[in-house]
Design a protein that fits this description.
The structure is a single chain. The protein is mainly α and 530 residues long. The chain contains 19 helices and 2 strands. The protein has helices spanning 16-21, 29-58, 67-93, 96-118, 122-125, 128-137, 143-150, 152-180, 183-212, 214-219, 226-256, 259-262, 275-283, 286-316, 320-378, 384-389, 394-425, 430-463, 470-503; strands at residues 3-4, 527-528. A two-stranded antiparallel ribbon has the order 1-2. Helix 8 packs antiparallel against helix 18 and helix 14 (286-316) packs across helix 18.
Length: 530
């Protein structure tokens, strides 16, 4: 089997235009296109579920954006630990293929059970009496916590919908892609896979707008409640997409990858995993710790800013159908911006300016757009007369600038952030990839969101409302972004060392050295062609 260690080719075999738009060899299409399609359908479900779960819980009668900080700490974080534990146990007992099918099935089954069994009976199942008792007993700042218990079935759907991205997209898909993709291929593949994810966002956004719009409800109505009909149609779309993911994965592993990679005749060495070992391995590696800081910082910052923005959106669009339709339009715009960025900016930026500069773009965009959003948030009263003269309201203006900020930040995340983060895993050994990704993507990302949620909870207990605590959120957000940029700088230095090791011929490659011999430093590994 031919061993590949070169990081990139000395001379590009493509023309300048093709290297810019489609740097894929014809013999690589059998592997690349299934990966691209898998990313598309996983991204499609991610965007559909993201808007569905928010519409369900945030627009419920006695709920609001205040519920988000509580459910991300007391619901999603325990759920992340549980799903990572299940993944580790399955990985220890089953083959890679069966683990993939099992995890997809768990999620699709939970969505189907909620939509077709629990939601039709939700008025009888929800704990309104207990919630009313708690509301009379607890302070106003606990409104979100009470709503989480009151609408427990909505909360369950929200948790599973939120975990789809960290489990299916980050752990399963990217873990599989990193395993079967060489570093030199990843520099060409991952930018185009980001394009597939962006197209998925556009398609998902317009699909949701159509399924929740008036046309179907006026001409093909089968439920009296328009939102219930929209929920059923959206869930059916998610289930069909999930079946496509499993079908494409089976084709890729059984028909494309060789026996060594698919595990059919010479299975890969089994790496035992446990939650304790995963986090112990992470703690002993500075390289993995820096990746974890980057992931934690992004999720903390985006959670801090999104709770405030969604609170304003709920005020403007209190109906679940209207809320879903608006957020789906935001998803479409985000996908369009991300698509243009992926095609003309992100891939070229990584190749020309390197990993560190490309990874720093996302926190810089978040910093600049957050400054703009908070400026309009705090200055809306002083601008009310000017806004009224053009026939709108301060709330519309704040939602608009918050939406613009969300579109730009999400576009940066889907292109440069995800691509650079996944590239950082590629030089690592197989054990580092499995254990590091399980700890960082399975739980670390949730810890970041939970950290932001704990901050919001503490401020809500003090100020009772999200709007009253926004100034403190802005100050904390600035500090976290600075920490994020410092971690990127440190990680970039180590990534450059690993990249140089890949570029060194095998006969000349030297073993990595460290002044701390006991630290676990994942070493670059030699990968094989499929």
């Amino acid at each position: 089997m031919q061993e590949l260690t070169t990081m990139s080719e000395t001379k590009s075999p493509f023309s300048a235009l093709r290297a810019y738009i489609w740097p894929i060899h014809s013999f690589e299409l059998r592997k690349f296109l299934p990966l691209l399609l898998m990313a598309f359908f996983i991204g499609f479900n991610y965007n559909i579920l993201r808007n569905m779960k928010d519409a369900l819980l945030v627009t419920a009668e006695a709920s609001g954006a205040e519920v988000l900080p509580f459910i991300k700490v007391w619901g999603i974080l325990p759920g992340a630990f549980l799903i990572t534990f299940i993944y580790s146990r399955l990985n220890n007992r089953l083959s890679r293929d069966r683990v993939f099918y099992a995890m997809i099935t768990i999620f699709l089954s939970s969505f189907a059970v909620f939509t077709f069994l629990l939601y039709p009976m939700h008025e009888h199942l929800h704990l309104h009496g207990f919630a009313n008792y708690l509301q009379a007993l607890l302070p106003p700042g606990c409104k979100g916590l009470i709503a989480m218990f009151r609408y427990w079935s909505f909360s369950g759907f929200y948790i599973m919908g939120e975990l789809w991205s960290s489990t299916i997209l980050s752990m399963l898909f990217w873990g599989f892609a990193n395993e079967v993709t060489l570093l030199g291929e990843a520099k060409r593949f991952y930018g185009l896979i980001a394009v597939g994810l962006n197209i998925a966002a556009i398609v998902a956004g317009q699909t949701a707008v159509f399924l929740t719009g008036p046309f179907l409800h006026n001409h093909f109505q089968f439920k009296d409640n328009p939102w219930e009909q929209s929920l059923i149609l959206l869930t059916i779309a998610v289930l069909i997409s999930g079946l496509c993911i499993m079908g494409i994965y089976r084709y890729l592993t059984k028909r494309v990858l060789d026996n060594a990679q698919s595990g059919s005749s010479t299975p890969r060495e089994k790496i035992r995993m446990s939650m304790r070992e995963n986090f112990s391995y992470l703690a002993r590696s500075k390289y993995l710790v820096y990746i974890a800081i980057v992931v934690l910082a992004y999720n903390l910052v985006i959670n801090l800013i999104e709770v405030i923005w969604k609170d304003q959106v709920k005020m403007l669009y209190p109906s679940p159908n209207d809320y879903t339709s608006y957020m789906s339009q935001i998803t479409t715009i985000t996908g369009l911006i991300s698509l243009v960025t992926s095609l003309f900016i992100s891939g070229q930026m990584i190749r020309r300016f390197g990993w560190t500069v490309s990874a720093a773009v996302t926190p810089i965009i978040l910093l600049l757009t957050s400054i703009g959003f908070f400026t309009f948030f705090f200055g809306r009263e002083s601008l009310s007369s000017v806004v009224a003269s053009v026939g709108t309201s301060p709330l519309v203006l704040v939602v608009f600038f918050g939406s613009a900020q969300n579109c730009l930040c999400r576009a940066a995340k889907f292109t440069l952030f995800d691509g650079t983060k996944e590239m950082a895993f590629i030089p690592l050994s197989m054990e580092s990839k499995l254990k590091g990704k399980a700890a960082i993507d399975g739980v670390g990302s949730r810890l970041g969101k939970s950290g932001g949620s704990l901050i919001h909870q503490g401020l809500l207990m003090t100020f009772s409302t999200i709007s009253a605590s926004t100034g403190y959120v802005a100050a904390i957000l600035l500090g976290v972004i600075v920490m994020w940029l410092l971690a990127i700088k440190a990680l970039g230095k180590q990534f450059s060392l690993f990249s140089d090791a890949f570029a060194t011929p095998p006969t000349q490659a030297a073993e990595p050295t460290s002044s701390e011999p006991k630290e676990v430093i994942p070493e670059p590994v030699t990968l094989s062609t499929p």
